[in-house]
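pasting for the record
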Amino acid sequence: MTHPRNEAAMTRATIAIAAALAATLALAGCSGDGKKKNEPEEGPLAKYLSALYDESAWTEDRMEADHKKMEKVIAECMTKEGFEYKPAPYQGGTVFNPEDDEGPQMGTMEFAKQYGYGIIDSPWQQSIDEQNQDQPPADPNQKYLESLSESEQMAYSETLYGPQPTAEEMAAMEEGDGAEPVPYDWKKAGCQGKAQHEVQGEQSYEAASKDPAYTELLKSVDEFWQKQYENNDALDALDRKWADCMSKAGFSDAAKRNDAQSKLNDEWNEAMSQGQPADDSGEWKEPSKAEKKKFQEREIEVAVADITCAEKMQYDDKAAALNLKAEQKFVDEHEKQLKALVAQYGVKKK
């Protein structure tokens, strides 16, 4: 059971850090023979922002240990409030990293020739399919929850997760109208918030985002990343050359390099959403093998053309250089504030 308020708890600093990490990954170059190049250089702004991020919090062992501790706190909290609660088992948080698998690396010509962008198939697809087939453990509290009246169930949910979002907050979340996300306050997130705060504490980036001293800085970081990807004349010039190359290769529906894969992703997601029940049993009918094969053939053609054009014009190296230059300019203009931010909220690495 996921509480809507928790889904809206991403703070401005979280977005800034995600953008920084995404920038580093998106601009990473790969060699055409399917082998990884040296690790891409981390940008100067990304270094400051990643200092607010504790990567050890996302290891499998750490997540499982934290989960068990939090479930114990939740059970104690719920019992104190007059409800029964059995700690839920850990369901796993494994993230598949394509770079951990043997075989061609995503983004290389070798990968493109075999899998395109990896939409239909990939070296790690079997592992993903196996995990998806695993049934999550039954909620140990479901039977008890069903024994409660409707009003008691609402009280149970509010005690566990905190108050439901207001109608205005729900409308803003559903419409995605660009309004500021609802700030996360563990004190208003019920027993779950209490447990998260006791076990994990407040993340550095969450604390920084609430500090008025850094409001303008983090707003500037947001604007910087937006300009890097949405209004960047230098990168747009690269994309125009890439698009011209793609057009000559017979693919003219993508104006920016990122569009090539995203358009295919959207197209396949649309095809998947059109699946109709095969019979009265309600079993979902996925696209046929022939439909998958036809789509993947086109996916491979686009991906191969994409990488061919990118390598011809050294797109990755030039884009990375542009990003590093822009990050350095931003750091030069805000260095004093960034240093103060890290000094106050940087994660102490062990």
